[in-house]
Amino acid sequence: MSTADTPQPVDVSIDVEYLTSTLMEMLRIPSPSGRTDAVMQAVGDHIAALGLPFDLTRRGILRATLRGRSEGVHRAVVVHADTIGLMVKRVKPSGRLEVVPVGSHSARFSEGAHVTIFTDDHDRVYTGTVLPLKSSGHTFGDEIDTQGVGWPYVEVRIDEPVESAGDVRALGIEVGDHVALDAAPQLTRRGYVKSRHLDDKAGLAACLAALKALRDADLPLAVSAQFLVTIGEEVGFGATHGLAPDVAELVAVDNAVVAEGQNSREELASVAMLDMTGPFDYHLSRRLHALAREHGIPAVRDVYRHYRSDAAPALEAGIEARHALLGFGLDSSHGHERAHVDGLVALARLLAVYLQSGLTFDDWDREEAGPLADFPSLSVQPADPEPVDRTVVPDEHR
Questions:
Q1: Can you tell me which residues the record assigns to a coiled coil (predicted)?
Q2: How far is the C-alpha of 398 from the C-alpha of 386, rounded, in Å?
Q3: Structural domains of the chain, ranges and CATH numbers in brackets
């Protein structure tokens, strides 16, 4: 199928109520990396309600298929359902818990967090709070402000009458138990969403809203696509497997960092051009931004220094595909996170438009390799050679 045969994408209406209610549902399901089965059940229920065929891998990655006009599955949209969290490192003699982070995040933002402690006995689940070692100003005075910041300086206080390590173990709590940071989501009157774990539950909700919009509008897809929901992105091995063998384009969906020096904004979608693993695919990234412009979808381009997404492990695992990253603006990522419904709607619209479009180079990208004569090189990415002689001679010496 040539580019001329591809139907033009149509901007779709996003069901905002579905997006926000799905987001709140997902946020309230604890899913730190390594303990994600419950959230994947919820995701699967939504995919089934949308009428999409899907399965799960042995470890629990979900793979749904969106049938298009292509015979093979040539495109993948990847989002993750796992979040940052904690794990019990040691049961202290005092009856408090030493914890270590699951995923990369600062203890500074865990201080004061309410948590849920999961034991091996599913009927024995406990609550608690992450506290600095010196948490009482009435006892420690100014030392509460001068003590160090880091995981050795915090502990979990369990909401049970415990005063010793033996008391804790009698509850069934052991080293290696998962501790989930409670999300505590809020949707404000101005459309802001405040919660932990918007990374990447907000991206997941935007993806599901885009799929629902395509189904409701009954729009044809030029290319069959795979929707992949991963469970290990926060610890670096999200999209390492599960992708269809013919995938030519992979678009990861994750947060777009809002901070000083960044171009991303909470009310916008973002197209990443580079992260810590290097540049994203030149042509696919620019095409995504062009689709946003063509359809009046508010989106910006951005570059991230300390960031990687599901696209990185997929490439490291050997996939031969163009890769890109779409995001929703997120303030204080992995901290006290905040996004805006407008940014999530913009992301969902851009995803829906992209899924209707053809491949970046419809003829070339359908095969894993081809001859140099067919390679779209100088016509799409020219680079004039440098001059042979760059010597600058002053006029008086000529």
A1: none
A2: 23
A3: 3-83+197-356 (3.40.630.10), 85-181 (2.40.30.40)
Q: By C-alpha distance, which of 75, 37, 50 is closest to 250?
A: 75
Cβ atoms of residues 186 and 195 within 8 Å: yes
Residue in the block written with tokens 């890769």 = 323
pTM of structure: 0.94
Exposed e or buried b per residue across 190-219, where buried means at least 16 C-beta atoms within 10 angstroms of its C-beta: ebbbbbbbbbbbbbbbbbbbbbbbbeeeeb
Contact 130, 154 (CB under 8 A): yes
- Report angle CA 373, 374, 379 to the nearest 5 degrees: 95
Least confident of 48-62, 218-232, 268-282, 376-390: 376-390
Closest by CA to 225, choosing from 261, 204, 203, 249, is 249
Segments of 81-204 assigned E as strands? 85-91, 97-102, 114-118, 125-132, 154-158, 178-181, 186-187, 192-194
Q: What is the pLDDT of residues 359-393, one digit of tens each?
A: 999 889 988 899 999 999 988 999 988 888 877 77
Average pLDDT over residues 304-314: 93
Exactly one of 155, 163, 233, 368 is catalytic; which is it? 233
